[in-house]
């Protein structure tokens, strides 16, 4: 129906998801860097887990994705010189920057636009709901099958299909788990589980949360930008 007034993590979490999605679609990447040079430039501020946060995001391809929000974010990143870091882009796109000259980077009404997109796909519908002093537009679920399929996919990834190796997991599912946790919504997916399954699922989620993004990003066949986004939320 609507996202909680008290959840202030979703906005930045959604921007993180957009950066990951653009990276997985081959539109964004991290600037090539030499770890020794970066550490020499930032000797005091860096440790093993934070290096990827200092590397700039660059546009690898500006081919349209077909998604308005993703294309809007991609255009901002492509047109910005000098490039910004993952941490900076999350702050800029969510409007959390203190620099008034960069407020135009903010992606506005993201949750509402995403909800309308799901309405067009027949997943949600639109209603007015009265909240004492004011009416609020809500978007109740109409197609529960799609939601349950997604919830089941998340549950299975840490239960029946657990592989105990993040690099053998589907990158989107892995990112979804980590960013859903950072956005304080992951427990909703595990709430229906029996106690033993819930405890096991959360234990394995915490195994993923304890990974060191810097070390994981250095392994072969990985998406470095994805791990940089993870580092921005779990550092």
TrEMBL record:
<dbReference type="Pfam" id="PF05719">
    <property type="entry name" value="GPP34"/>
</dbReference>
<dbReference type="InterPro" id="IPR008628">
    <property type="entry name" value="GPP34-like"/>
</dbReference>
<comment type="similarity">
    <text>Belongs to the GOLPH3/VPS74 family.</text>
</comment>
<dbReference type="GO" id="GO:0005829">
    <property type="term" value="C:cytosol"/>
</dbReference>
<dbReference type="GO" id="GO:0005802">
    <property type="term" value="C:trans-Golgi network"/>
</dbReference>
<dbReference type="GO" id="GO:0043001">
    <property type="term" value="P:Golgi to plasma membrane protein transport"/>
</dbReference>
<keyword id="KW-0472">Membrane</keyword>
<protein>
    <submittedName>
        <fullName>Golgi phosphoprotein 3</fullName>
    </submittedName>
</protein>
<dbReference type="GO" id="GO:0007030">
    <property type="term" value="P:Golgi organization"/>
</dbReference>
<dbReference type="GO" id="GO:0032580">
    <property type="term" value="C:Golgi cisterna membrane"/>
</dbReference>
<dbReference type="GO" id="GO:0000139">
    <property type="term" value="C:Golgi membrane"/>
</dbReference>
<dbReference type="GO" id="GO:0006890">
    <property type="term" value="P:retrograde vesicle-mediated transport, Golgi to endoplasmic reticulum"/>
</dbReference>
<dbReference type="GO" id="GO:0070273">
    <property type="term" value="F:phosphatidylinositol-4-phosphate binding"/>
</dbReference>
<dbReference type="InterPro" id="IPR038261">
    <property type="entry name" value="GPP34-like_sf"/>
</dbReference>
<keyword id="KW-0333">Golgi apparatus</keyword>
<keyword id="KW-0446">Lipid-binding</keyword>
<dbReference type="GO" id="GO:0048194">
    <property type="term" value="P:Golgi vesicle budding"/>
</dbReference>
